[in-house]
Amino acid sequence: MVERLGLGPGTTVVDVAAGTGKLTRQLVPTGARVIAVEPLDEMRAQLRAAVPGVEALAGTAEALPLPNASVDGIRSPPPSTGSTSTARCRSSTVC
Q1: Residue 61 has what pLDDT?
Q2: pTM of model > 0.90
Q3: What pairs with residue 23 in β-bridges?
Q4: Structurally, what CATH architecture does the domain formed by 2-84 represent?
Q5: Contact status, residue 38 vs residue 61, Cβ threshold 8 Å
């Protein structure tokens, strides 16, 4: 996945609905700048403790707290399956 998406130093990836950082931890070794977005304060606190150094922001997929065209990829869970997907940004407001 990392090679396919071109994640690495000089890229920025956002983990949306990051929770406690279980999947965020898998993005850190890529060398990319990793930003975790999580709406719940308690979950963000656990994420910060579990994944030091990752920027953890309050927000949701519908209202990402990032400027337009500021990231290279987004990892987010599909709405109903419980699995995750990671996509290379092509065109949207944040990517």
Answers
A1: 87
A2: no
A3: none
A4: 3-Layer(aba) Sandwich (3.40)
A5: no
